């Protein structure tokens, strides 16, 4: 009853004028409504006068209800008829009514809540898109503005359908044409601005749209020219469009290929003399160009110091006198801080951050009362008091995460010899260290009191804790020492109790799967900090900390942590990252396995300091015996199976305390067989005592060239020619110095072939000397048990360089592809005129049992210098890449893939289908599985592609692959039958698709692999 009464009150509150306009609207709409038995009532009227009358009636009604929520019921009741009429009138493209209709449509979209509008989005988008290139500027401008409003608020569920409409109407091409017309002087600025904004919106939402833009060289030059010439406010839209282009890796590369001119303009747009909206867009563009580490370094190589200077300036140039910051200024500082997160990568830009006073800027953003630090001779107690007072205020809390992060990255990448006393910034750095240590202690003490609603506070605690961890482990001796000392001072009253609480919590968590991941992350990082403090080691032993940490590591590595893994700084993954395409997928050094990384970090440091594990073969944890061999296997598995470089580094760091030095990997296991089984060896190493070791010159040349006297080889080794007659066995004897120890050499060869070695403490000294002579720096780091430096690339086992000039000298067999369509073929090494590759039996035999059996068979083929491979050149190149790197090259992806035609896509997938067939024939299950995964990853784009793949797979008798492809067309089987697209297929294949369709209707299909 109450709701009915309120409805009646709302009805009474609507003015008589609005009711009258509503009635006139319906009367006008009825003039154009046509009825028929088949389609019911539809608004269809070509009479210009009626169209004018309807448009005016709609406009008058919208004006009367605009901004009044009480009138939404009237608007809701009429919206369907209004949209139908406007869509018809826009579709007629009558000059007499079109401008009015476009303006009224814009008014409607502005007024109508999206919750109501979303049901009519598809109806409106189609005619509006068609009119974007209309010759009347007013019409095109209204349509562009209208589309901007619609697409900016579009729900995810409508994205695919709307994109299909936009693609069909070629809206991207129309937008490009408008921009180029403006550059040519034929379009006014009024149309240029909304068109650029619309194109930017489209590129942000739909990655496939980006290819058409960045591949248009004329447009890219036009945008660059416009950016230089336009006045301040017009630059905002162009910068936004360039940011959208940079979301594509290929687009970002195109922008950077233009040289430093664009970057210099971007830096000028960051300057304080520019309007704030322009400055913000310039910072966002820089962020987009720095999404990927490779692109970031390209940007820095072109324009490093000016970008850093502008970034620091953007973080600091606000009202410093009043210390009051407006919301607009905070937005600008926030964008500058986001760009400053490029400190997460090592490089020369760190030098410029320090030179431009980043420490002072961070301190001013952190503490509102930092002016008190200018007092002379402040004691430690006074510094702590000032820091506590400043941190307890709510000053610029929105920036705290970024401040801690920037500080942490600056510390972890700081040079060893950096001395704040020389650079004159000792006070600010000391104070930042003090603040972070206080925030660290506060984070641990109050964790049990934090409610779920305090998510922002938990994130700040995580960032502060991570900053302390990085400062304690900084390569800079001053920062690391100061951080340890200051944290120890602050922990004096309650450090022991906090450690006890940390350990008990981690032990409790290890027995359960339901826990607060972010809170436990903070605890694990805090424990890693404690391990670095000398006075905490006795407490760790007292509270059985070693056992607890081992148990937690075991729990992490066992796979107990599933999904929802956390990365360093969860808030760093902004909208830019979520919409990127065409970037080579590379795992961040810290990655998303932060719990595992930090627990391994702490364990490795503890093992290095105490030698605990080396002296204890078994440890009891919660009643379960945990032995060194088990830990060894778990850590090796982490090295092999984890993708995060940081996790793999700290696993190897921990392994070094267990007597295993190096980088365990799957590829090394395969190649290592060649050393132990001694097949196809072509070189002998002779020690002074007469002992002899058979090795493989090609593996030594790539993995440890210092063991090869390359200077003694003929000029052919330098790169151009292989000896004209390839011998089946090329033997070379190398006599080693008397200083080379036999046992040390054997272990070193283990590292060369397997990627790692195991040695006891007695042999380490000799191994260090030998590894140093061979310049094996990554191995040396582990032999000396040095902690890995943040962002150091994880060493890969890659023999691909053997396919180059040096490897040609040691080649003992040729792989020849089947006939190709290539018109001509030339080889730099030999006169053979068919597509081929010079390879090595030892590498092929290690990865393919079929080829090894062939080479060892004694039959005619085993003595042949050429092996004919029954696949195309493109497929053979991918196969050889796998032989030499354990990785299969991927076909194009992202917008490059999406903009290929069916035949182009099929041409890209054909080599993988061929490899699937050959892998089945040559018993290479890993290759077959990898190829199937690649093909499956590309089958969800077009049904025609899946049908083609089914046909080709069947022609190779690859029935499993054909059935996999059939699952992708199973959901539309009935449509395919009705359209006749299955008529050309063999009945067996049609039945295969039908069976997949039945399975889909019963259970659904999950394509995740």
From TrEMBL:
Record carries keyword Transport: yes
Coiled coil: none
Alphabetized UniProt keyword annotations: Ion channel, Ion transport, Transport
Species assigned in the record: Parasponia andersonii
Boundaries of every BTB domain copy: 681-761, 811-892
Pathway(s) this gene product operates in, as recorded in its UniProt entry: Protein modification; protein ubiquitination
Name of this chain's protein: Voltage dependent potassium channel
Gene3D superfamilies membership: Leucine-rich Repeat Variant, Potassium Channel Kv1.1, Chain A
InterPro entries recorded: ARM-like (IPR011989), ARM-type_fold (IPR016024), ARM_At1g04390 (IPR059007), At1g04390-like (IPR044953), BTB/POZ_dom (IPR000210), SKP1/BTB/POZ_sf (IPR011333)
GO BP, sorted A to Z: monoatomic ion transmembrane transport
Pfam families (UniProt xref): ARM_6, BTB
PANTHER family, A to Z: BTB DOMAIN-CONTAINING PROTEIN, OS06G0674800 PROTEIN
High-level lineage: Eukaryota, Viridiplantae, Streptophyta, Embryophyta, Tracheophyta
Superkingdom to which the source organism belongs: Eukaryota
